[in-house]
């Protein structure tokens, strides 16, 4: 990482290649980072230098060294430098299912404004915002996930809204999706697999995992698409193998989820090498 200490001339993104269940990146942007987009994960991060500005829930927010970014799954946001000097940050993308394994069916915690100065969340996220080339042992990662879930719940406060959720049925639906991504999955299939009426299941799924069943399916296919790209597949081959109808269909979804095109995403990763 030493070669990145001085301000680079090109935007770059480094993805962790260490084993683990949480995707981690470190990046530097001189100005514009991402167009508006939505992840279906928690985005937990730390600004290392500069000002990391982003629109979130109708406000312009500014991440600076010392606070913690905690963006809720499926909430629209973008990313840009708040000053001319650019910004550098680390981010971890945490699958809500990992949080639900610990919370056991509670509504996902929400951090108001996507930023927190609470020391509990700062310390609980520390393991995931270390240098991306530092591996996390399996037990270390599991302990860190527990600490993060507890901090999110404590800092997020009491949830207002539906609290009686059928976690077991929603988890059966999620497991069915993970095993059958090659199919054209429908709510009727999920109703049958989960044993839960489809519209109640859909509402519970959103509350428990932060996104709709359809967007969850799409994101898993995009995950596969990205893995294939990194393995050297051509765009069109990776598109079809991941389950998309065609390249334009895939690209629309990719930009909605990551804020850049697949080609630009790859360029930033290569710039970091």
From TrEMBL:
Q: Does the keyword Disulfide bond apply?
A: no
Tell me the InterPro entries matching this sequence. Answer: AraC-bd (IPR003313), AraC_XylS_family_regulators (IPR050204), Homeodomain-like_sf (IPR009057), HTH-like (IPR037923), HTH_AraC (IPR018060)
| Record's keyword terms, sorted | DNA-binding, Transcription, Transcription regulation
The record's Pfam families line, in alphabetical order, gives: AraC_binding, HTH_18
| Domain annotation HTH araC/xylS-type: ranges | 171-268
What GO terms are given for molecular function? DNA-binding transcription factor activity; sequence-specific DNA binding
Entry's SUPFAM superfamilies?
Homeodomain-like (SSF46689), Regulatory protein AraC (SSF51215)
Q: Report which superkingdom the organism of origin falls in.
A: Bacteria
Gene3D superfamilies per the UniProt record, alphabetical: Homeodomain-like (1.10.10.60)
Identify the PANTHER family for this entry.
HTH-TYPE TRANSCRIPTIONAL ACTIVATOR RHAS-RELATED, TRANSCRIPTIONAL REGULATORY PROTEIN
Q: What is this protein called?
A: Helix-turn-helix domain-containing protein
